[in-house]
Write a structure and sequence with these properties.
By secondary structure, this protein is an alpha+beta fold. The chain has one domain: Roll (BH3618-like). Helices cover 13% and strands 29% of the residues. The protein has a seven-stranded mixed barrel. A hairpin with an 8-residue loop joins strand 7 and strand 8. The longest helix is centred in the last third of the chain and has 12 residues. The protein starts with a strand and ends in a 5-residue tail after the last strand. The relative contact order is 0.21.
Length: 169
């Protein structure tokens, strides 16, 4: 299906790449169908793009990239609502806030987006762990990761334009 976006233009999105967030995201409850866009800029930041509203796209990142110790702990009813029997079937994204001063970038670790990779159903869940921050500064950790990631011996493949992520969720 063709999806019009204000950030990436027209994108061809396969039905199997769209996931459903029944309750929507906090503050955007009326939007429930999304897909992930890789802008191809080597930053490791992806975009959660609405299929219904061309202007709604959230920068997201997998928390393990900048916080290898990040532990997802879900209550039994949260696992059930996502139809998860094992956390290995979950893909986790944190929504980012990227202000004009990029070094102040932060990730919401407290309320991640969790997607069941098998069913393509997701939820934004406020986790019970009081140690998790809603404004976790990630710029320095992300910068270190990118430097290490791009400085290894593996060739860096430059992408041309945005692409739809099919492997995750």
């Amino acid at each position: 299906m063709q999806v019009t976006t204000t950030r990436f233009g027209e994108l061809e999105v396969k039905k199997e790449d769209i996931f459903h967030i029944k309750e929507g995201l906090m503050g955007f409850e009326s939007l429930s169908d999304f897909f992930i866009v890789d802008p191809g800029d080597q930053t490791l930041i992806l975009w959660l793009q609405s299929t219904k509203d061309p202007a709604i796209a959230f920068p997201v990142i997998e928390p393990k990239i900048f916080n290898p110790d990040y532990q997802l702990k879900l209550l039994p009813q949260e696992m059930q609502s996502l139809e998860l029997t094992d956390l290995s079937d979950a893909t986790v994204f944190c929504i980012l806030t990227i202000p004009k001063q990029v070094s102040e970038m932060s990730a919401n670790l407290k309320a991640p987006l969790i997607i069941n990779s098998k069913t393509k159903n997701g939820r934004q869940i406020v986790l019970q762990d009081s140690k998790l921050d809603i404004r976790c500064k990630i710029y320095n950790d992300l910068k270190k990761f990118i430097v290490n990631y791009t400085s290894d011996d593996a060739p860096v493949e430059k992408k041309e334009g945005p692409s739809i992520i099919s492997k995750r969720p």
